């Protein structure tokens, strides 16, 4: 019998649990269809799930269809529990992605699609709710192709469209051209390799199209080939009602039997444990078995040190998850609680959901916990009450800020109290966005042994290091160990920990740091008469949005905004839309904070007063240690480095006494301007320098002799139109009533600006979501106007254009999109924020007015011929 593990994924309220019920019903697993609104579904058996009508925990059911056994895993759809969903992806062979026939591809649906791609899971698509009014295949198919990409083919007809399927692969196309059909084996191979995504249409609630989906999975899926030796992937840790710790895993090789001994490594420690029992769950019930073979998903009791993502036997570890919490809450305990005891109890919850990242905050003497959203907080309160008998509360949610750097610096740390010694030199470089903390060693092993170097690497990775702006964790920084020194007799392991930490902090103090905050992509569906209110709100949230798009008789606004601003906006949407508006959010990533100075001031963090994270170093003189502040440390260091030649050398006491302090200016330019920082980060900007050109001079010989002409490149201004509209208060107020009027007003203003400055002005407006829109370029008076083509945003067009114009013009881009600013600088353009451009525009208007007033005064002094 063929065995596959199949997961169901969907945007919240997409009908995922209803489809699970229908699959169970069609395979004879249940005799009557349960309903979410009746609170009697087979898989959602937790009280809070039935109360709220959402899936919170992934559930398992085993069902059979013909000679195929399916282990069905139903996953949460709500964004607050998306980390639970991602953990389940580790063990899937195939997935069903549900798309709403009435809503189309929603924000979280795209997140799921990207995760399925990351985990390389072959996917079938079920377009649900096709019984709803105003739904049709043509709209749904086009919507999916635009939002998700190619390879999605309708399989709901009796005979699949072989020609469309063949277009997914060259070999399949060659076979089709010769035989005018494709075999099931070939189609299954295309699905397996994620070149083809069979799409079925129906209604899970009315059990329509579900049997066809089931038949398609049966015909176009393979059973995986497993290793002969034992292997297992752990995807989940839970506790049963009796308090037994259960390790949920998929067997990926060989067999596992009761009393078998399993070996593993956790927290760098090896362990072994025996299997007490093996359970095969189906809903809330389970059966005990003595043995399971590869392909089965089971829960194992007796293993106390396993963790989610762990590979056992021949199985490898899973990479770090994509989805991580962006909110931090403090746990408010009842009076008289033993904090240490409660902390250990809450650690059990962290085992089940590692992203909770439980921490003791020494500054506030509080337990902090990280979550995805407020509904997860309600779940935690219920779990803590049920499991530990504690009625806890949670403080106000706080945004998890991060810090990074924009330039390259050397950080140095020295730790030398009496009978201790360690010195570390690190190069800190900006990393790619989303790269986290990376590190390597380029230190000379003759000067610092490999063992000490490995220890320093361990200290770099063992904890979250704090930034110097607000004390937030640092990210997207690459550390390179370039030099270090140990003492033959006095150096201990802890000495290098101190020196490493101090080197990091000293480098951060010297660097140009920037505060990062999390952003959400959003999709807002509302009635058309509410668009003005919504756009005004989003503008006030410092959000970026695309032009509204008509979806049936409603409007859809898409874009992105800071989590701190839009996180609870659904409450306002419910109020002004009378419950008909829907807001979908998905995590976009970290980007520069929209109100950095305000956050820094409110936090009031003093990096010099943070005694647990010192920025200075400790040296020794006359048998006693003394502290040296970070900005004086370099002149005391025992090693000097030359970054230009990648060399380091020890400094004798005589040299130290006579040499001046070494600063970063001795090795490379320390210019703090953003352009210089960008070039250090991403390499030289490939922009033609605005230097004097050379022209040919034939006056002295037949061979061309070049001399300088003194010419410079002409100026070109690229304007991100809608970004400016919603950044300038005057235009934003107009846009709240009429977006077209605001756009025309901006073009008139740009026309005046161009007429006076003489610059080439190009205004770019986003037509990303306008169906079948082709790129349009026209002139509004003396300004070039561009409307981008479908699926091309304004920032993509601007990035492309700056690259093309870099050798012909001195290009400046006016936008407040921080991510776009980095991109356009990389293509050789200068950048001007929306507010700076507004100030520039006012200056030009003032000069124009002054010029006109002066001419009027002169005209008053002209004597007409008649008066003469």
- Can you summarize the main beta sheet? 7 strands, mixed
Number of strands: 44
Strand order of the largest sheet: 2-3-1-4-5-7-6
Coarse morphology: globular
Unreliable stretches (pLDDT < 50, length at least 5) are 652-683, 685-711, 857-868
DSSP summary: helix tally: 25
Can you tell me about this structure?
- The chain is of the alpha+beta class and 868 residues long.
- Helix content is 31%, strand content 29%.
- The chain is built from 25 helices and 44 strands.
- The strands form 11 sheets. A 7-stranded mixed beta sheet has the order 2-3-1-4-5-7-6, with helices on both faces. A 6-stranded antiparallel beta sheet has the order 14-13-16-9-8-17, with helices on one face.
- Strand 37 and strand 38 form a beta hairpin.
- Helix 12 packs across helix 13 (493-510) and helix 21 (729-735) packs antiparallel against helix 22 (739-757).
Attribute tags:
25 helices, alpha+beta, globular, 6-stranded antiparallel sheet, disordered C terminus, single chain, 868 residues, 31% helix, 7-stranded mixed sheet
């Amino acid at each position: 019998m063929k065995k596959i593990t199949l997961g169901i994924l969907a945007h919240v309220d997409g009908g995922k649990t209803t489809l699970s019920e229908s699959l169970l019903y069609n395979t004879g697993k249940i005799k009557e269809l349960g309903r979410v609104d009746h609170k009697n579904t087979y898989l959602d058996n937790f009280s809070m799930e039935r109360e709220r009508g959402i899936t919170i925990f992934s559930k398992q059911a085993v069902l059979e269809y013909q000679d195929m056994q399916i282990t069905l895993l139903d996953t949460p759809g709500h964004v607050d529990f998306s980390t639970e969903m991602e953990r389940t992806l580790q063990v899937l062979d195939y997935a069903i992605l549900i798309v709403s026939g009435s809503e189309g591809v929603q924000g979280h649906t795209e997140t799921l699609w990207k995760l399925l791609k990351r985990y390389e899971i072959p996917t079938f698509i079920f377009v649900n709710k096709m019984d709803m009014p105003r739904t049709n295949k043509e709209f749904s198919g086009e919507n999916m192709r635009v939002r998700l990409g190619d390879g999605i083919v309708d399989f709901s007809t009796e005979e699949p469209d072989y020609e469309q399927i063949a277009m997914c692969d060259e070999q399949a196309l060659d076979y089709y051209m010769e035989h005018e059909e494709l075999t099931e084996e070939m189609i299954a191979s295309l699905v397996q390799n994620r070149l083809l995504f069979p799409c079925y249409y129906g209604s899970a609630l009315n059990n329509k199209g579900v049997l066809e989906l089931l038949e398609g999975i049966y015909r176009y899926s393979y059973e995986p080939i497993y290793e002969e030796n034992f292997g297992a992937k752990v995807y989940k840790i839970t506790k049963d009602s009796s308090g037994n710790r259960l390790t949920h895993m998929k067997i990926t090789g060989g067999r596992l039997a009761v009393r078998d001994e399993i070996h593993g490594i956790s927290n760098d420690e090896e362990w072994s444990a025996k299997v007490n029992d093996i359970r095969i769950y189906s809903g809330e019930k389970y059966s005990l078995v003595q043995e399971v073979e590869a392909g089965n998903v089971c829960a194992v009791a007796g293993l106390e040190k396993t963790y989610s993502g762990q590979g056992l036997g021949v199985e490898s570890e899973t990479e770090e998850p994509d989805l991580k919490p962006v909110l931090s809450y403090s746990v408010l305990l009842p009076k008289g609680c033993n904090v240490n005891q409660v902390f250990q109890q809450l650690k059990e919850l962290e085992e089940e959901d590692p992203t909770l990242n439980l921490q003791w905050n020494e500054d506030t003497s509080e337990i902090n916990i990280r979550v995805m959203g407020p509904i997860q907080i309600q779940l935690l309160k219920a779990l803590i009450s049920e499991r530990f008998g504690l009625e806890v509360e949670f403080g106000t949610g706080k945004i998890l800020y991060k810090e990074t750097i924009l330039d390259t610096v050397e950080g140095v740390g020295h730790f030398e109290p009496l009978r201790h010694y360690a010195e570390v030199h690190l190069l800190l470089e900006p990393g790619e966005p989303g790269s986290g903390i990376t590190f390597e060693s380029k230190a000379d092993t003759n000067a610092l042994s490999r063992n000490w170097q490995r220890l320093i690497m361990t200290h770099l990775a063992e904890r979250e290091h704090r930034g110097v702006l607000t004390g937030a964790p640092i990210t997207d920084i690459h550390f390179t160990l370039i030099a270090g020194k140990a003492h033959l007799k006095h150096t201990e392991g802890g000495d290098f920990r101190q020196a490493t930490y101090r080197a990091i902090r000293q480098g951060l103090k010297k660097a140009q740091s920037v505060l990062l905050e999390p952003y959400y992509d959003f999709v807002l569906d509302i009635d058309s008469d509410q668009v003005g209110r919504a756009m005004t709100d989003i503008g006030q949230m410092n959000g970026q949005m695309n032009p509204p798009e008509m979806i049936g008789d409603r409007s859809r606004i898409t874009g992105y905004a800071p989590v701190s601003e839009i996180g609870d906006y659904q409450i306002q949407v419910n109020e002004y839309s009378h419950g008909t508006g829907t807001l979908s959010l998905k995590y976009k990533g970290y980007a520069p904070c929209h109100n950095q100075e305000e956050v820094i001031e409110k936090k009031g963090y003093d990096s010099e007063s943070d005694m647990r994270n010192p920025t200075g170093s400790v040296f020794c003189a006359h048998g006693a240690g003394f502290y040296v502040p970070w900005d004086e440390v370099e002149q005391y260091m025992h090693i000097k480095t030359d970054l230009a030649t990648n060399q380091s050398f020890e400094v004798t006491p005589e040299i130290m006494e006579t040499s001046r302090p070494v600063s970063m200016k001795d090795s490379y330019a320390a210019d703090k301007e953003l352009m210089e920082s960008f070039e250090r980060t991403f390499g030289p900007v490939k922009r033609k320098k605005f230097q004097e050109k050379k022209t040919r001079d034939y006056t002295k010989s037949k061979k061309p002799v070049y001399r300088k002409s003194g010419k410079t490149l002409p100026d070109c201004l690229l304007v991100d139109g809608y970004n400016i509209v919603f950044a300038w208060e005057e235009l934003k107020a107009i846009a709240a009533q009429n977006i077209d009027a605001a756009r025309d007003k901006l073009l008139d203003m740009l026309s005046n600006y161009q007429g006076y400055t003489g610059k080439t002005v190009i205004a770019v407006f986003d037509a990303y979501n306008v169906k079948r829109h082709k790129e349009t370029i026209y002139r509004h008076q003396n300004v070039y106007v561009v409307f981008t083509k479908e699926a091309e945003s304004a920032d993509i067009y601007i990035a492309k254009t700056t690259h093309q114009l870099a050798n012909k013009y001195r290009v400046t881009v006016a936008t407040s999109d921080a991510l776009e600013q980095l991109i356009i600088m990389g293509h050789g353009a200068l950048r001007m924020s929306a507010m700076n451009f507004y100030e520039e525009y006012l200056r030009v208007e003032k000069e124009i007015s002054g010029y006109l007033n002066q001419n009027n005064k002169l005209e008053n002094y002209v004597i007409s011929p008649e008066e003469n």
